[in-house]
Amino acid sequence: MEIAKVVQVVSSSKKSFDDAVTKGVKNASKTIRGISGVKVTDWTATVKDDEIVRYRVTMDIAFGVEG
């Protein structure tokens, strides 16, 4: 039986939602081994002067527990 652990991560980007997700996974992988999946649970953006200036995602990152 495989066991996974899930941690919640918030990541942001000035470029796009996709970039925020990519950056979040890349940064999480520096301290979490064996990431097996990601689920974006919230998408938000900061708007200034009618333009999006920051894309932010909240995501659950799953990884296997070593036994």
Topology, element by element:
Blueprint: E1 4-13, H1 17-28, E2 35-48, E3 51-64
Antiparallel strand pairs: 1-3, 2-3
Structure description:
- This protein is an alpha+beta fold.
- The chain has one helix spanning 17-28, and strands spanning 4-13, 35-48, 51-64.
- The chain has 1 helix and 3 strands.
- A hairpin with a 2-residue loop joins strand 2 and strand 3.
Strand order of the largest sheet: 1-3-2
* Regions with little confidence, pLDDT below 50 for 5+ residues: none
Main pleated sheet:
3 strands, antiparallel
Total strands: 3
List keywords for this structure.
elongated; three-stranded antiparallel β-sheet; single chain; 67 residues; 3 strands; alpha+beta; 18% helix
Write a short abstract of this structure.
The chain is of the alpha+beta class and 67 residues long. It contains one helix and three strands.
